[in-house]
Amino acid sequence: MSDESLPQRFSRHPLAWLAAYFAFGVIVRHFCETGFAIPLGFLVGLVTLVAISRVTAPAIVPMLFVLLGVLALQFEISGISENRIRRIYDEGRIASYEPVEVEGVVFGSPEPAFDGMLLVIEADTLRFKSHDIKVAGRVRMFVPRSDSNAANEFEQLNIRYATRIRAYCKLEREEEFRNPGVPSRKAMLDSQGIDAKATVKSPLLIENIGDPQTLMPLDWIYERRQVLISEFNRIFTPQTAGVLIASILGDKHFLDGRTAEVFRDGGTFHVLVISGLHITFIGGLAVWIVSLFSRRRGLQFSIATAFLWTYTLAVGAEVPVVRASLMFTVLLFSLILHRRGSQLNGFGACVLVLLVWRPSDLFTPSFQLTAVSVGAIVACAFPIVEKLRSIGRWMPSTTQPFPPNASDRLRRIDRIDRYDRFSLGAGPGLHRDGGVLDYHLDLEFGPGEGLVLYPHFYPYVVPGWFDKALRWRRARGPRFDKALIIAPSPELIARLPGGKIPDRDDFYRLPDDERMRAWRQVLSESRRMGDEFWELFSTGRLAERLQPL
Fold first, then answer.
1. Is the pLDDT of residue 4 over 60?
2. Rounded to whole angstroms, how far apart are CA atoms 90 and 383?
3. Which DSSP category does 489 fall into?
4. Which pLDDT score is estimated for 395?
């Protein structure tokens, strides 16, 4: 369907607009306390308005998705149940650092650290002062392995994905002193989906109380990751292993402080965190490898996304990684549809799904950076690339000075410095005022058998503006094999007023009458130069004056 045949109010990317309306609703709820009554009241009003009048969908749908955004954030805020661990500690029913017994299931796999292990527990029971409390939420525990005895004790527990354990510890959910502008400790824990954290003093305080009921593929994935971490630590130095484990396997706990500080000072610490950069690279690499064996886009999509989500699970499936993988999957799927506008539409679908999943992520720097960067690529970079591809491969020539598919607007702009016939009677061809680009044209002058006549101020060409002060920087080589530079001799320049070629400084340095008098003298010398060139050309003696560049 062509653009002209589309209805005037038709949008090629409706999901992008719906995501924007939904996000606006989330923002409204974030800054205004609405509860459920106000948005539900507006929703009833919209339904009534549609029933009694002929209000069209373009007027109703935006308001509907704004209300849905308000309700989504309200549900998330109200959805924190009374038995949620974060709420129990925030309300002071149990104070931080009070000894408790946590029971639950291991989420993911035990994470090796520099001198211990990290566990994330899906807790369901807290024992506090001999009372069992049914709870919900995730707890992150650090188990030290400072010596061989502690390491052996932890190994004997045989803890892996979905193992049910009981641990005696002191849960912590307290603010800490942080530099200005840094998010609070509680906000950071909430963004990671963690309700509280704890340090278990010894593996002896942990009890394995149930065999894992898990799918074998996940168990196999986590085991392979543990093997890779062990191999990196065995083969490489601690500093190198720490960087590789962080950047490839998503475990930052092997980084030493000095190495981490070097990356921070260089502004490249994000390389050590699994993020959209890694996901895009890995997903693109997977697509490229599959494309070497098959041109079927459906097969490329299936294999690449299967590998990408396996990697996402292996590195811990943290929220930013899942978000990046989801975006890559949806955008890659939009590419196999062969429909214009589908990429921006796919981006809108990604944002909409992510905000429905976790509306509060809209206010996190991670989500904002992902949305802005991917949105800029999809909405700006991709259309520019497609436009350039539609123009096609083209080299300017006398018969085709413009790209074959160039728009009339581009042709009008380009005619500022292109002419089909020179005003002084030159034959048909492509004539360009070099000053529009640069007076020193170090360019490819195109194919053909003729010569390029290049009138210039000097008998040399400077390749770049910053090379003017560098006398050894001169343009030479095959580009000028067919170029004939016509330049005044040093003797001619010495006869000019001030012994130089006029420039823009003369407008500030000289009175008008003196400047015009000097300019007339320059014109007279230029005519003499032109007459000499014509005489050499007409008598066949031009080669006598030619000099190599």
1. no
2. 48
3. -
4. 63
Residue closest to 151 by CA, chosen among 96, 195, 205, 203: 203
Query: Which helix H or strand E contains 135, and what residues bound it?
Result: strand 131-144
| Neighbouring residues of 392: CB distance < 8 A, sequence distance ≥ 6 | 403, 404, 405
For 228-249, how does the pLDDT look when each residue is reduced to its tens digit (9 = 90+)? 888 888 898 888 888 888 888 8
Q: With a cut of 50, say whether residue 436 has pLDDT above it.
A: no
3-class DSSP state of 114 = coil
DSSP 205-225: GEEEEE-----HHHHHHHHHH
Return the C-alpha torsion angle 247, 252, 258, 263, nearest 10.
40
* CB contact set of 225 (below 8 Å; sequence gap of 6+): 109, 249, 314, 315
- Is pLDDT of 205 > 70? yes
Check: CB of residue 56 under 8 Å from CB of residue 35. no
Backbone angles phi, psi at 143, to 5 degrees: -115, 110
Q: Give DSSP secondary structure letters for 47-105.
A: HHHHHHS---HHHHHHHHHHHHHHHHHHHHHHTS-TTBHHHHHHTTSS-TT-EEEEEEE
Going from the C-alpha of 422 to that of each of 222, 432, 457, the distances in angstroms are: 73, 10, 21
Q: Are 218 and 309 in contact (CB under 8 A)?
A: no
Mean local confidence (pLDDT), 105-111: 84
Would the pTM count as exceeding 0.70? no
Q: Chain centroid to CA 57: how far?
A: 34
Question: Domain coordinates of the chain in residue numbers?
Answer: 14-78, 81-214, 412-545
Task: Tokens for 149, please give them.
Answer: 């005895």
Q: Closest by alpha carbon to 493, among 529, 543, 538, 467?
A: 529
* pLDDT surpasses 50 at 21: yes
**pLDDT tens-place string over residues 27-74:** 998 888 888 888 888 888 887 877 777 656 667 888 889 999 999 998
CATH ID of 81-214, from 3.40.1350.10, 2.40.50.140, 3.50.50.60, 3.40.50.300? 2.40.50.140
Return the pLDDT at 404.
Answer: 67
